[in-house]
Write a structure and sequence with these properties.
This protein folds into three domains: 191 residues, Cupin (Jelly Rolls), CATH 2.60.120; 60 residues, no CATH class; 80 residues, 50S ribosomal protein L16 arginine hydroxylase, Chain A, Domain 2 (Malonyl-Coenzyme A Acyl Carrier Protein, domain 2). With 374 residues, the chain is α+β, with helices and mostly antiparallel strands. The longest helix has 15 residues. The chain has nine helices and 16 strands.
């Protein structure tokens, strides 16, 4: 993090040692999601998929029919699957490897599968990305060039003047980290080439402050004294009736100071709630045969309670936010401790669970935000 994060590219050979170890034993590993299984996701409405063809360039969004999906042996195409951490446990597991970076920065995992020659053209991203080679080989060319102008005549965001400065061929298990705005071009060298991309979100300050302000405004509903009407018994006759009164300004200044609206602490709860929101396409369903409160508490003593793959949990000090909601407010110490453990470890196993049957933890279970591990 000190030497490379947000600063310069890093190539890590054998980032997943299992690939090299298995090859040495004569049993080479393949991707955790075989090609035939991965391609089926392109048929599903709930999976965001895109098909990119080269020579000439074309771009289509899924879901696709079976006929529209190219054969593995066909050259010059790439299928991209966004947010696969929500759809496959292996993809979700990969994200857990990157918790040396704050959860608030993590976005999702995208998988690309391609025929020989497949790629999306030379481009740049505005966020940090780890590119993990999972199947086949991919040739990467990168450049830290300043010219990031795009070709206006193409349906994709492809750089107009890409000039490679470094080049590598990544084997299964290798990984390439790229900071924002580093130009790169990846070309599949083998049929069924799979690259798994772990991306990190970079919200603008405008976005963060807008969300923080909006939620801060909502929180004012919980302060009864703000319902009091403005009064100005000290108001004097004025010769500048068009001006906002000094009396109003002074009283508002006192309220702003009392509410600490001029301090970052006032914005952080709303910003944390925003960053803990699931993706727009996230879908939750409660358990088909839901446990009653007592059975739920009993189950906590024997099974791991984990976030559903699309659930986001973040902490602000001792407060915990889950899917955009403050879930520790008004909870018992046992429930607060349970949420803190879930946030820190992404699982909960309570040997002697107490006072959790009427908690927000149980409500999150009923909503499908939390599930018991099978």
């Amino acid at each position: 993090m000190t030497r490379y994060w947000h600063k310069k590219p890093l190539l890590v050979r054998g980032a997943i040692p299992a690939f090299a170890l298995s090859a040495q034993n004569g049993e080479p590993l393949d991707s955790p999601i075989p090609s035939h299984e991965l391609l089926k996701f392109a048929l599903q409405d709930e999976v965001e998929s895109r098909l990119v063809r080269a020579k000439p360039w074309s771009f289509n969004q899924g879901p696709f029919s079976k006929k529209a999906i190219p054969s593995i042996e066909t050259p010059d195409w790439t299928l991209l699957f966004q947010g696969m951490d929500a759809h496959h446990p292996s993809a979700n597991k990969i994200l857990s490897w990157f918790r040396f970076i704050p959860d608030a920065r993590l976005d999702d995992l995208m998988i690309s599968i391609a025929g020989i020659g497949g790629g999306v053209g030379p481009h740049f991203d505005s966020y940090d990305v780890f590119l993990i080679q999972m199947s086949g080989r991919r040739q990467w060319k990168i450049s830290e060039q300043k010219d990031l102008s795009l070709n206006p005549n193409l349906p994709l965001k492809i750089l107009q003047n890409f000039k490679a400065e470094q080049e590598w061929v990544l084997e299964p298990g290798d990984m390439l980290y790229l900071p924002p705005h580093v130009a790169h071009d990846g070309i599949a060298l083998d049929a069924g080439c799979q690259t798994w991309s772990v991306g990190f979100r970079s919200p603008s300050f405008k976005e963060l402050l807008q969300e923080g302000l909006w939620r801060l405004a909502e929180s004012l509903e919980d302060i009864p004294e703000l319902e009091n009407k403005f009064a100005d018994p000290k108001q004097r006759a004025t010769l500048e009736a068009e001006q906002l009164p000094d009396e109003l300004i002074q009283q508002l200044a006192v309220k702003v100071k009392e509410l600490k609206l001029n301090q970052i602490e006032g914005f952080l709860p709303g910003i944390t709630a925003y960053l803990s929101e699931p993706k727009q396409q996230a879908f939750f369903t409660g358990p088909e045969d839901a446990l009653n409160p007592k059975a739920f508490t009993k189950q906590l003593g024997s099974k791991l309670l984990i976030p559903q793959a699309q659930t986001r949990i973040l902490s602000l000090g001792k407060q915990v936010y889950c899917n955009g909601e403050l879930v520790t407010q008004g909870q018992t110490p046992a429930a607060v401790s349970a949420w803190q453990s879930l946030s820190a470890n992404k699982f909960l196993k309570a040997n002697k669970p107490q006072n959790l049957d009427k908690s927000s933890l149980y409500e999150a279970y009923l909503a499908g935000w939390l599930i018991f591990e099978h």
